[in-house]
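W.,

You were right to be curious about this one. When I first looked at the sequence I had no strong expectations either way, so I just let the prediction run and decided to look at it fresh. Below is the sequence, 351 residues in total, followed by the output.
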Amino acid sequence: MKIAFTPATISFLPMAYTLAKSFLIHNPDYKFYIFLLDPVNELTNPFQHDKIIYVSIANIEIEGFEELQNSYSISELSFALKPALSLYLLENFPDLKHVFYFDADIYVYNSLEHAEKLLETYDLLLTPHFLSPINDDKIPSELHILRTGVYNMGFAAFKNSENAKSVLRWWKTRVFDFGFENNNLGLAADQMYMSLAPVLFKNVGIIRHKGYNFAYWNIHERKLSEYNGTYFINSEYPLVFIHFAKFDPHNPDHLTGMKHFNRMLPGEDPLVKKLCSEYANQLISTGFDNYISIKSVYFKSKARQAHDRMKTSKNFRERFKNIITLFGSLLPGFVKKGMTKSALFTLRNIR
């Protein structure tokens, strides 16, 4: 048994469904789970498929989930659920060989047989943001990527093994405790922690196939081409999937928001433009405009979110202070003094 999945709010349902369909076309021996941060109701009716299973998060017992609701934004909540849902699948389906995780804003163009082959050797698979140095002054730069994590966690694969489950339990604890998005504190939700995984755990595989996770952050090293209806990267690697991060289907000339990316002018690459337009058309025809403004049951206004975070921040601050105290006890006095000042500043600015 093989499963792929994504979490999604009801507003992202057209994207999640488009991802699932594209995946199943090329990987028909899988089932695809869409975990909704909303009820499964009549709004899911237009998105039925015999291999797509909808499960409401409310129907899964996840320890610590109530605290997450009270302190995390919708996006942080979705990110924090990645390891918990991966564990849920591996622990509840004993005959499951492995599980693939995808962000909802991905579109699949080929089989994931390369990843399946790697899972015969490794217990989990990660995709680096890029595999070659960035030698220009465009954005994103290497520094931008270092602030968000070495690996892009829009995709990950986990074998049904004790080692993989150990990684997931570790990752779950970290993102449940410190899964905020705060660049000033070096917190990129779930992503930063997995930079440590190859150091802390054995049997971690790195996918170096450049057809995986094509996106704006690696376009400096990857050139799309087409031959006989099949897409390739650098004329060598079959294109497996594109990660359309921060993509606006009503501006399909833009691979992503220009705030995050200026390495390519809008529409500069005709093939990238073609695939962006095709993806945009699929999203819109699937009901993107009708769903994108629907508020999740877990949605909170900025004011409400700030209020709830204040209520739960005491535990966060206590955990942070304990870490600083433990780490500081191992350092020379002058270093400890400077670190304490920095920690106090950080604690005062936690949001």
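Here's what jumped out at me. Residues 301-314 have pLDDT under 50 and may be disordered. And, maybe more interesting for your project: DSSP finds eleven helices and 14 strands in the chain.

Coffee later to discuss?

I.
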